[in-house]
Inverse folding.
């Protein structure tokens, strides 16, 4: 992918940048790499996991290209493949893969970003003409932030409330479905009834042409409905194997989980690149002298600098292993011929939501820290960090707002928990009740911590703590939510009062999953054990108040956690370069003046001059 | 300042943007507002505090203008005024104030950003010609990131090692001093011996022309030395009233404290603007329905959304009051005719360093949170948050890297503490020793917390906790640092091992100062008491592990802190709009599509349609 190592001119106009990215998308299509993920029957390779992994590699380069490719082959192509049927595949799949049909994914509306089940665009079936009428019925129903809409896309996968029943019968809404709607002529003009506007300049990702779509009774044939999960007969009769509307909608959404996983992968790549730059700079940059030697100290030798970068590096390792698991789990479920498995699909969606949220927040925080760790140099566009920061910022928002995603995770955790409890026999329920009471007592006396002694670096010990926290937060969260079921309870008030608790439970769950993914491979290299320990300990340190508050650690023990984090920072410091090199980012994707110090360490002549200067001072 | 409410085209080229900002700087000069801060003898008004407060107002507008103005009148003008003498003032002060002489402030070098005492540029006195020779002796001595250097500045205030003694005698270095060096002709060309390059596009602040300066034996007259604190006679004899080189250097630096205070002010303004946007958006944006009513919930009614914005809002209030104190303290010390007061000056510098660090980190974090709280809309340039975020990012770095500044604060705290202890008589020292031992015991038993019961919202109680933490961290930090004095100790290792401890002490100190500044005015409005409590409690909550670990709070008590933060979020929610309106940002500086929802709340017609849609669904 060397040809895709774009270094866009940071002073290019938006139009120039968009044009460059559009050209890169065409180059990517020519490479036939995107074909890899699609149905072999249409010239693809069915390697769903491989394409997501390749997509992640793009994240080491220009992120506008990553997102633009993600829109074309992940979102638009993904909807076409997963929600469409042969009639759509036959007609569009090859053109979509080849990039001769550029598409966009028109889900989000101005008024509904997170709550997409309640989108307001309508697709009303007209049985007389056998057409759907796509219509923007209010300002808030405008499709917004749609990547590809402002400049390049010819067709949109439009999500809209499907309405049947004409003027003479009662109309019926069947929930949100996806429709293929041409929006632009080959010449690039908006088609009749479609109003396209440009979202303009953004904080980042300016190579992507985000736009807005308003539909004024735009007619598309009945076949425009992507009808894998539901269909409308020519006469206007709606049918679906999934009778529950909500379940149907979330089944459709679930097939699109690849987008979320891809964003997590892109965030991981960007974080790895930022850390590579900051660690390598930190190994050459010197500031202030050691009083004993008079020599200026390399900044990565300072504890506080290590603290900024090394725990984040350890967590980046952990997230990459979790991402690998996620991708292979997805591959198993989506590869050609795979048997549908509802439970594993549900688990995949929960993991994807959680890892996307935790991973993109980690990216935003870590890239910011890396920028600061590189000082003024980190602020210059030529040193790559500004684009990494600006481009990844919206990752916490798109493909699902992180807070909303964690709520989704929490909801699943609580309902799984509820099912587990419901399955208990009477004796089990009594024991379960007793456990909770005993739990409260333990919490008050701090006696639990007696059980939580052990080597702080031992993965089993760290895991135990993470599991304790996860289980405790889920069980106590479930208890709080039970109140919402009491007669006369204000459900919203109960939920809202516990919202921070539920998010904490979701985080604890994701932390444990991520830790497990890392622990499973930590014996592959002698260094990894310590990286795992640093990751686990820094997660625990970050929430150590919780462990003390709930009696899982004593205050003395949490102090030892901090001491252990510091010690591990010191131990891993000599290996920092090796650890970032292992991310395997090609050097030409990293070249920038920030790393010039690696070539121009002070020469002997400089040193002599410096000595003279100090001597005469 | 209505005319300065710039809304630069986000798609303008760098050159267009720079030109627009340069024009705005001229407009600002014509307004004669910058004159306000300078010596009345030269047409100023001597209102040092007023000008810094006015500068902060600029922070509600375009931040490139803020920084460009800060370079001209704060840094360049400030150096000229504070380090120069009549010979410089007579010749340049009026032109500088009028903006007919545009200057830059050339301190930072590629190799030395934080450790400016060890800059490598030299200014060697040539007694034969009565000139200083300004020279860049190595690549790392290049002046870097200099605002104004790339395009507009005609003159630079250059910081360089002053060297006397010619080829026939031993040369002597007297430390860093400041020199006025012309760098560009009136036509805009670099002068002979001066090589100017452009730092190019940055993550933000692209209306500011940052550049690099390399001097090849550039000669300036002897009088170019800003000689308020030191001079060189025509014969080449160096003299200064301050004999200690380090003390002399930091005395000179200290006079420039205004820059740091101004950055803190700019960060405060930007934070206030971001919060105003996010709170107002959060009051109109609706997402997901209340199951009881079916109505979509305003996002600011969600606990987690309140948690994101309201504690940050409370801390923004606290920081503004601390900033007000800082500005008035500076005004008292720097106003015309003020008596020099070394102790108060030192205190001012420590406060300025601390509040700049804490305030700019708060800005970076809060503006990021506000962007995320506005979802996709927050990512669009038209909604102002992207510029706020990108432009303020470097505030954590320039005018002193925040980590280095906090270290400076810690150093002062420890040496003050050392002096206090040294003054104790023998009995006092014994008691002091006993205290520390007793402290350790208390820490182990957690008995201290008995003393720390009380109303969690009571300012006196909150203050006591903040003072406890500050004093504990300073005393125990001092104890650790004492080890560095032991014979044979590795000073660097001792310091480095305690670096995180020292930074925590500095933070604790700044937190207490900021709290005090707020507490002193909290009775001015009935709401402020609760805002103060939310600020104090959220600071304590953020570090609650520390309070438990050191026996100042029980685990049960820290849980109560979290509960109290949640409760206060709920109580202040109805007042959120009032609280951001009180920042007084003119509406035309806030106008953007993000706030359109305030005008276009769903109409009755929309609501009816929505009901219909729900009813038929």
């Amino acid at each position: 992918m060397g040809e895709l190592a774009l270094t866009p001119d940071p002073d290019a106009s938006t139009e120039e940048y968009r044009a460059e990215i559009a050209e890169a998308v065409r180059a990517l299509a020519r490479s036939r790499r995107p074909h890899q993920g699609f149905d072999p029957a249409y010239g693809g390779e069915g390697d769903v996991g491989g394409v997501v992994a390749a997509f992640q590699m793009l994240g080491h380069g220009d992120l506008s290209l990553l997102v633009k490719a993600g829109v074309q082959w992940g979102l638009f192509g993904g909807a076409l493949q997963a929600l469409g049927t042969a009639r759509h595949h036959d007609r569009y799949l090859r053109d979509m893969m080849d990039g001769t049909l550029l598409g966009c994914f028109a889900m989000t509306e101005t008024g509904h970003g997170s709550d997409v089940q309640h989108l307001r665009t309508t697709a009303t079936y007209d049985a007389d003409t056998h057409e759907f009428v796509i219509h923007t019925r209010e300002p808030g129903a405008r499709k917004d932030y749609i990547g590809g809409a402002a400049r390049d896309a010819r067709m949109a996968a439009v999500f809209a409330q499907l309405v049947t029943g004409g003027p003479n019968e009662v109309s019926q809404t069947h929930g949100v479905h996806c429709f293929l709607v041409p929006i632009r002529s080959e010449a690039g003009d908006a088609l009749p009834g479609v109003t396209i506007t440009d979202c303009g300049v953004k904080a980042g990702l300016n190579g992507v042409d985000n736009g807005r779509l308003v539909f004024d009774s735009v007619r598309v044939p009945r076949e425009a409905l992507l009808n894998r999960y539901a269909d409308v007969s020519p006469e206007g009769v709606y049918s679906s194997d999934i009778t529950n509307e909500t379940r149907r909608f979330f089944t459709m959404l679930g097939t699109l989980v690849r987008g979320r996983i891809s964003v997590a992968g892109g965030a991981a790549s960007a974080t790895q690149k930022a850390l590579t730059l900051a660690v390598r700079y930190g190994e050459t940059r010197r500031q202030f002298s050691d009083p004993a030697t008079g020599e200026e100290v390399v900044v990565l030798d300072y504890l506080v600098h290590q603290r900024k970068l090394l725990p984040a590096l350890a967590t980046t390792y952990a997230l990459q292993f979790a991402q690998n698991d996620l991708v292979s789990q997805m591959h198993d479920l989506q590869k050609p011929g795979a048997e549908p498995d509802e439970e594993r699909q549900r688990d995949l969606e929960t993991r994807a939501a959680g890892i996307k949220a935790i991973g993109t927040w980690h990216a935003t925080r870590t890239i910011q820290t890396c920028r600061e760790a590189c000082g003024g140099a980190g602020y210059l566009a030529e040193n790559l960090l500004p684009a990494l920061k600006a481009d990844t910022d919206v990752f916490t928002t798109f493909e699902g707002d992180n807070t909303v995603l964690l709520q989704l995770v929490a909801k699943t955790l609580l309902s799984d928990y509820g099912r587990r409890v419901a399955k208990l026999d009477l004796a089990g329920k009594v024991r379960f009740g007793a456990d909770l009471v005993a739990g409260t007592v333990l919490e008050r006396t701090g006696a639990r911590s007696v059980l939580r002694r052990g080597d702080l670096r031992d993965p089993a010990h760290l895991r135990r703590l993470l599991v304790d926290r996860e289980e405790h937060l889920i069980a106590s969260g479930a208890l709080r939510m039970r109140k919402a079921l009491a007669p006369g309870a204000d459900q919203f008030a109960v939920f809202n009062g516990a919202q921070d608790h539920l998010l904490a439970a979701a985080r604890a769950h994701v932390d444990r999953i991520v830790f497990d993914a890392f622990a499973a491979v930590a014996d592959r290299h002698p260094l990894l054990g310590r990286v795992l320990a640093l990751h686990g300990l820094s997660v625990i340190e970050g929430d150590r108040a919780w462990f003390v508050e709930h009696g899982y650690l004593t205050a003395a023990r949490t102090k030892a956690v901090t001491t252990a984090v510091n010690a591990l920072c010191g131990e891993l410091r000599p290996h920092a370069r090796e650890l970032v090199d292992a991310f395997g980012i090609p050097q030409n994707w990293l070249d920038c003046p920030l790393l010039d110090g690696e070539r121009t360490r002070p020469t002997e002549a400089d040193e002599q001059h410096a000595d003279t200067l100090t001597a005469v001072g």
Observations:
- Chain A has 20 helices and 13 strands.
